[in-house]
């Protein structure tokens, strides 16, 4: 059975992208630690991506290079995009789903026994609100962005408890349900 995991790289002040979704400030840190075992295990275990529409259509700092795409172009598997407005034309390897539960079900089905990796802070928040997210993995990079897209934003929302996964050196936790 697949594990639904929200994985992101964040600045020390908690932003996964700069203003307007700009990812360029974080890219200088990608690939910096090729010995990162948590990143390697995640990448080897990804069975599908569950992506929010803003992330899917957003800023790819590697656009036009051989590192374009998810996980710096290393990921080539199925992608599920949660959107209220699916495109009229099909996109190869991408399934567009209009409701959260349907998107999670499709992404976990496609992932098999691997990870259904969530890309998009708003999708992760929605999944937490509905009790559909299993784990969170955050890689922190040494920079303060000051503004942008927060790792997790839930104005007026309550506490979400996470439990550190024993033996992990990165911030890898289970979502308490």
TrEMBL record:
One of its GO terms (molecular function) is 5-amino-6-(5-phosphoribosylamino)uracil reductase activity. Residues 5-159 form the Bacterial bifunctional deaminase-reductase C-terminal domain. SUPFAM superfamilies: Dihydrofolate reductase-like. It holds the Pfam family RibD_C. GO terms for biological process: riboflavin biosynthetic process. It comes from the Bacteria. InterPro entries: DHFR-like_dom_sf (IPR024072), RibDG_C (IPR002734), Riboflavin_Biosynth_HTPR (IPR050765). This is Dihydrofolate reductase.
């Amino acid at each position: 059975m697949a594990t639904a995991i929200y994985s992101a790289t964040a600045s020390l002040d908690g932003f996964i992208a700069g203003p307007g979704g700009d990812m360029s400030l974080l890219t200088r840190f990608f690939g910096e630690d090729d010995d990162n075992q948590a990143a390697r295990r995640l990448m080897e275990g990804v069975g599908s991506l569950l992506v929010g529409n803003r992330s899917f259509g957003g800023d790819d700092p590697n656009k036009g290079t051989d590192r374009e795409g998810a996980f710096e172009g290393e990921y080539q598997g199925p992608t599920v995009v949660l959107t209220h407005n699916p495109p009229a034309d099909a996109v190869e390897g991408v399934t567009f789903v209009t409701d959260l539960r349907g998107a999670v079900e499709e992404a976990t089905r496609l992932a098999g026994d691997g990870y259904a990796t969530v890309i998009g802070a708003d999708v992760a928040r929605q999944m937490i609100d509905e009790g559909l997210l299993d784990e969170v993995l955050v890689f922190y990079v040494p920079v303060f962005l000051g503004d942008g897209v927060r790792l997790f934003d839930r104005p007026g929302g309550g506490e979400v408890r996470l439990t550190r996964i024993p033996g992990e050196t990165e911030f890898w936790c289970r979502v308490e349900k």
